[in-house]
Amino acid sequence: MPRNKIFDVQNSPFSSWHRSQHDGISYCDLDVLGICPACAKILFIADTIYNIDGKYRGKSRWLRSPYQQIASSLEVPYFEIFYTVDENTENRQVTEFAIRRLYPTPKDIQILSTDQMLKYLEYKAIVEHGPDCASIDYLKKRINENKSKHPFARKYMYEQILSQ
Q: Which end of the chain has fewer beta carbons closer than 10 Å to its terminal beta carbon, N or C?
């Protein structure tokens, strides 16, 4: 965790305490563990970064190292996910993502709309992992129930994939 707060990072009592200690200790937050909604298998890890100025500034090699070690140990991809928001909306609505894979094979940044990002997350959980999921019946149930208030536009397509 950085000694000094950057932008509007969360200010928890633990974070405040940690920042006030000596430099002989350190930790970093793990922002995202992408998991299967049925069996909880870790599918990827990611560091989310607020893209305040459109320059896609990621972390230093040193700060990326813990994420890469975890990804390597778990044999899952590691991404930096930059997000851009509309500061004029009440909840600072996300307008765009830029995703860069850093492990296993680094790739250039790809700009994604919010729907393209959702589609990619669906792909990781349902298309790529789903057919081999240890809890495939529960995954099918989760998809069919969709208790959220958000529409599941590609639901039918994913039902077909999991039924094969």
A: C
